[in-house]
Design brief:
Blueprint lengths: L4 H13 L4 H14 L5 H10 L4 H9 L9 H18 L1
Helix pairs in contact: 1-2, 2-5
Length: 91
Amino acid sequence: MSETAEARLKRMRMRSWRRGTKEMDMILGPFSDEWLASLDAPSLDIYDRLLEENDQDLYPWVSGAQPCPAHYSALLAQIGEFARARHITRS
């Protein structure tokens, strides 16, 4: 049985908020709440694959400290921009 679109978004939101490191929880959790429902199918597929990555790799990629794999670059740029804008408005 395949996963419904609603169940997929719910699973992805939960995995975004429960990463294993607080830093990535605070980056991916709010991003998923704000953007997941509006991402197109290919972007959702990439985000789903991104959730499989280790936080120790994700954080340097999203912060720009290390280059990320090319297939994640557009999505991680969007996530990083969202996180920086959110941080600035909350500071």
